[in-house]
């Protein structure tokens, strides 16, 4: 916390700016897109602050950075979702979840966690299905499968039952769960019924999720520093 906390100060400030300004979504603009994306830009800087060599030599960290880049593009598209750019944003975040899944890796496999996430994802889609129509019937199914897979890899990596977890693996797991909460709230509010305080819930969980996932990228750096000190 002492080493990583100061690097996150710009992110917290940018997040506060977003919630203080609380620009109306009814009049999208490039300024509102900038304010919305600014916390994610700060997370780019957070990862870049660990050094280009670190990102190049550790694929998991570079994939998380790439995921943050696609997230920012997705955020910008969603500013204009009422003008027909919702699917574009959906695609950008789908790519983000693929990159995050790749960063979390496939070891350990943990089929029990996979089964649990599969049941949760299937239940969510079964609930949403009757509200969907047209291409969203298929697009939402694919998206839920991707974010469910990402959640599985984050949960599996924690290895809580084997007492092998680290704070960064826990960070990835909690971040993935918060991302699912954020996206589920988006889906409920857009396709099913108005969710009270939906925008606050969506953005608070989203920013927290992205910060925690970005934090999970620093684990390999810590292991290297520990070996050098030893």
Which key terms come to mind for this protein?
230 residues, mainly alpha, 10 helices, globular, disordered C terminus
Describe this structure in words.
This protein has ten helices and no strands. The protein has 230 residues and is an all-alpha fold. Helix 6 runs antiparallel to helix 7 (136-158). The model is unreliable at 220-230 (pLDDT under 50).
Question: How would you briefly describe this protein structure?
Answer:
One of its GO terms (cellular component) is membrane. This protein has 230 residues and is mainly α. It has helices at residues 9-21, 30-48, 52-57, 59-79, 86-104, 111-129, 136-158, 167-192, 198-216, 219-229.
Q: Based on Cα principal axes, name the global outline.
A: globular
Oligomer: single chain
- The end-to-end span amounts to 20 Å
Mean pLDDT: 92
- Tell me the Rg in angstroms: 18 Å
Order of helices and strands: HHHHHHHHHH
Largest sheet: none
- SS strand fraction: under 5%
Work out the helix count: 10
Strand pairing plus helix content: what structural class? mainly alpha
The stretches of 5 or more residues where confidence is low (pLDDT under 50) are 220-230
- Share of helix, binned: over 70%
Extended strand count: 0
Write the layout of secondary structure elements.
Layout: H1 9-21, H2 30-48, H3 52-57, H4 59-79, H5 86-104, H6 111-129, H7 136-158, H8 167-192, H9 198-216, H10 219-229
Helix pairs in contact: 1-2, 2-4, 2-9, 4-5, 4-9, 5-7, 6-7, 7-8, 8-9
């Amino acid at each position: 916390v002492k080493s990583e906390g100061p690097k996150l100060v710009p992110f917290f400030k940018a997040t506060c700016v977003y919630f203080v300004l609380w620009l109306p979504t009814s009049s999208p603009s490039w300024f509102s897109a900038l304010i919305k994306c600014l916390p994610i830009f700060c997370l780019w800087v957070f990862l870049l602050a660990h050094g280009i060599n670190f990102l190049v030599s550790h694929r998991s960290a570079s994939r998380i950075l790439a995921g943050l880049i696609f997230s920012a593009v997705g955020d910008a598209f969603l500013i204009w979702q009422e003008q027909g750019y919702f699917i574009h944003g959906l695609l950008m975040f789908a790519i983000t979840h693929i990159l995050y899944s790749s960063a979390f890796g496939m070891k350990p496999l943990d089929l029990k966690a996979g089964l649990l996430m599969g049941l949760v994802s299937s239940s969510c889609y079964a609930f949403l299905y009757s509200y969907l129509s047209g291409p969203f019937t298929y697009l939402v199914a694919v998206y839920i499968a991707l974010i469910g897979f990402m959640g599985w890899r984050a949960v599996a990596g924690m290895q809580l039952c084997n007492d092998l977890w680290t704070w960064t693996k826990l960070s990835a797991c909690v971040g993935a769960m918060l991302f699912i909460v954020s996206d589920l709230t988006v889906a409920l509010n857009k396709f099913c019924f108005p969710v009270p305080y939906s925008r606050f819930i969506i953005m608070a969980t989203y920013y927290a999720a992205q910060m925690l996932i970005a934090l999970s990228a620093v684990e390999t750096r810590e292991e290297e520093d520990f070996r050098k000190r030893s």
